[in-house]
Amino acid sequence: MKTVRWVAVGALAATLVACSGSQDTSGSSPPAKVDPPVLRDLPAPISLKKVDAQRITVTGNVDWVVMAGGDAWASTGTPAVRRFDGKTGDPSGDTALPDDSCSAMDAGFRSVWVGACSSAKLVRIDARDGSVQARITVGKRVLQEEGSVGAGEGAVWVLSVSPKPTLFKVDPGKDKVVERFRAPEESAAVRAGLGHVWITDTVNDQLVAVDPKSGDVDKRVKVGPGARFIAVGEGAVWVLNQSDGSVTQVDPDSLKVVRKTIVGEEQVEGGDIAVGGGFVWARVSDSLVAQINPQTGKVVARYGTPQGSGSVAADKRAVWITAHDVDAVWRIPLH
User: Fold this and answer.
1) Is the overall model pTM greater than 0.85, yes or no?
2) Which terminus of the chain has a lower count of CB atoms within 10 Å, N or C?
3) CA distances from 328 to 74, 113, 131, 253 (A)
């Protein structure tokens, strides 16, 4: 990656001010608004062979992946979730679902949470042994497709858009829906953490911050075109914008955009985003995955050649990338 060095201009600015003498600033206009930076430096993709990536062939439409209990859990295109050993990558059993999962899973409260969309059920899987702990009916119709489940802020959160957009709050201590809130009209995905429940509005290109107690909308933040998938961690909220291949970082306290990072040279078809191992990972279309430094917002690496759409998850040991078009899962060790 080419390093760009910026030349300091502070001394020159100070000289110009000194030469101009004292000025009356009363009645002057307020300072111009400064837009958050947009980072566009994309390193060339690294070969998977160079990073000792392990390819695991999975028969079926392998897609959503999440880390829980030190292992990776992935949907398979069948009514089941498959567990992969976090150390070896070996498959270690399937857990049956009422029907296929059609949205990103989440982990929390020592469990994996899966939305079985057609049956409108939230399935709770024990992250220790893979057993089904609960099948919770959520709403009267299907759950939101191509979205996500969110575990955090003391509850598990699920979106349904039929017959009207609704955010369901599930108590993990009771395994039941305890509250229902009106959701934004164009809700797509939901996650929770850092003080809020976060919902993307993919039509209006917004991240919506929802109070987890009242269900009220605290703020709508403009993020990027085609805003859909969300990750929470490393002190920020991260939104994958599909239409321009970017990731927007939002500060959870000020509810303002910190920066926007271009993660691919084209739109993202499907995709996903995750936080793990000290980095942010964006599943993109012009390579397999982009690795973002959360402190600087820069893409520090991209891995692999395009392999269609899929998902991504990571912990301190490895990053896991699925590609349902080629029936594969890759495990890239991080240490």
Assistant:
1) yes
2) C
3) 11, 22, 24, 39
